[in-house]
Amino acid sequence: MPQSESPMSVPQQTKLPLIKAEIAVLQAHLEDWRSVKGKQRHLVLKAVHKETSLQAPTRDKTLLKARKKTYKEWLYNQCRRKASKPLVKYGKK
Question: The organism sits in which domain of life (predicted)?
Fold first, then answer.
């Protein structure tokens, strides 16, 4: 059987990049996200989702629902703090 006849069984999903309005909303709520833990973060995420849906009313409702995961990932990635490591001296004493 030739390869050209085999159907693609797994469709490729592509993520749409965040628009500037969404990033501005996420940055506005970033300090709130950093200051709370656990279940309180769900409330911040809910506020972000509500505000971004007002910023982008032309988007489809199903697309806005799918963006919740993207917003959560962005907030987690932005709140990482890199601790400075102590300097290592490789010279002989």
Answer: Eukaryota
Q: What does pTM read for this prediction?
A: 0.66
C-alpha span between 26 and 32 (Å, rounded): 10
| Cα(12)–Cα(56) distance, integer angstroms | 25
Residue 72: its H or E element: helix 61-78
- If one compares 7 and 66, the residue with the highest pLDDT of the two is 66
- The answer for residues whose C-beta is within 8 angstroms of residue 79's C-beta and 6 or more apart is 30, 33, 34
How far is it, in rounded angstroms, from Cα 68 to Cα 48?
9
CA distance 89 to 9: 55
The one-letter code for the residue type at 62 is T
Does 60 have pLDDT greater than 90?
A: no
